[in-house]
Amino acid sequence: MVKVAVVEGDGIGHEVIPVARDILAAVRPDFEFFDVEVGYGLWERTGCACGEETMAELRSADAILFGAITTPPDPDYRSVVLQIRHDLDLYANVRPIQGGDVDIVIVRENTEGLYSGIEWTEPDRACTARVVTRRGSERVARYACTLAKSRRHLTVGNKANVLKSDCLFVEVCMAEAARANVPCTARYIDALCLDVLMHPDRYDVIVTTNIFGDILSDAAAYLVGGLGMLPSANIGERHALFEPVHGSAPDIAGQNIANPIAAIRSAAMLLRHVGDPAAAAAVEEAVRRVVDAGIRTPDLGGTAGTREFGAAVLREVGRGKA
C-alpha cells in the first residue's frame, strides 16, 4: 500500500491539486490518500504554517503531492517550502522542461546555496549566507549523473568566475561526472540562461546550485508554454515530494481558470518514483491527447476551466485502461 500525503496549499493549489489527486486515484485505486494542511491560510488562523505534528504526518507518507504555498513578505513568516525541504532532507530538485522538441532536465541542489536559511539582519543591512558544501555538491551531482547516464550529457551551471563557492561546486560535479563516465561541460549561468532559450537542443541534463536552478528552470518554462506546464520532484534518501513549479497565484484563485497540467505531471513523476512507469506514461499521454484535441486552459489560448480540463484527462486515462 502506497501512502500519499496530499497538501493542497494555498491559492490555486486548492483547484489544481484535487485534479491531480483524482487522476492518481483513477490509475492507482490502491493508493491510500490522506490530507495534510500546510501553508499561509493555516498560519493566518493558528500562527503556525507547518508544525512538528504536520511534519510527522509528512514523514509518514511514501510520497507527498504538494500544492503551491503563499509566502508573504513578513519577517515573522518562515518559508514552508524551505522548511520542508530542509527537514525531510530533499536534496535534489528535479524539473523536466519537456514539450515539442525540447527535452531538458534541470537538477537543482535543494538544501543549500542562498536558500540555506542562514540569515540575519543588522541596523543597516540584511544578510543571507550562501552555503555550498562538498557533501551537498557530491550527492546532487551523483543524482544528476544517474539521470545523465541514461540520456546524453551533463552541463554544470555555475558562476565560478566570480563566486569561490561555485569553484567547489564545479570541481565536485566534474569529478563525479568523470567517475560515472558521463560527458560533462561547465557553463557560466548567465550565458547558459540565454543559450538554453536560444538553442535548447544543445542541452540535456543541467545541474546547478539552488537559486541558479530556480531562476533557470523558471526562464526555461518559456520554451514549453509557461510555468503552468512545469512539474517538479524534490528527492531525498527517505522522502519525496512532488509539486508544480508555479506559485499559488492568488490573483486567479477560485476562478476555475488555473492550468492543472503542472500538477498532473507532478503526479506522473510521483507514479514513476514509486515504481509505476507505465501509469506515469499513461497520465502523460492522456495530457498530450487532451491538449492536442484543443482542450486548453486560458493561459494556453483555450477556454477550458481547471475542472473541465481535469475531467477530460480522466476520460482519456479511462480510455487507456479500457
TrEMBL record:
PROSITE patterns per the UniProt record, alphabetical: IDH_IMDH
An individual GO BP term: tricarboxylic acid cycle
Alphabetical keyword list: Oxidoreductase
UniProt enzyme class: oxidoreductase
Any one Gene Ontology molecular-function term assigned to this protein's record: NAD binding
Record-listed E.C. numbers: 1.1.1.85
Residue ranges of domain Isopropylmalate dehydrogenase-like in the record: 3-313
Pfam families: Iso_dh (PF00180)
PANTHER family, per the entry: DECARBOXYLATING DEHYDROGENASES-ISOCITRATE, ISOPROPYLMALATE, TARTRATE, ISOCITRATE DEHYDROGENASE [NAD] SUBUNIT ALPHA, MITOCHONDRIAL
Family: Belongs to the isocitrate and isopropylmalate dehydrogenases family.
Name of the molecule in the record: 3-isopropylmalate dehydrogenase
Originating organism: Methanoculleus bourgensis (strain ATCC 43281 / DSM 3045 / OCM 15 / MS2)
Taxon lineage: Archaea, Methanobacteriati, Methanobacteriota, Stenosarchaea group, Methanomicrobia
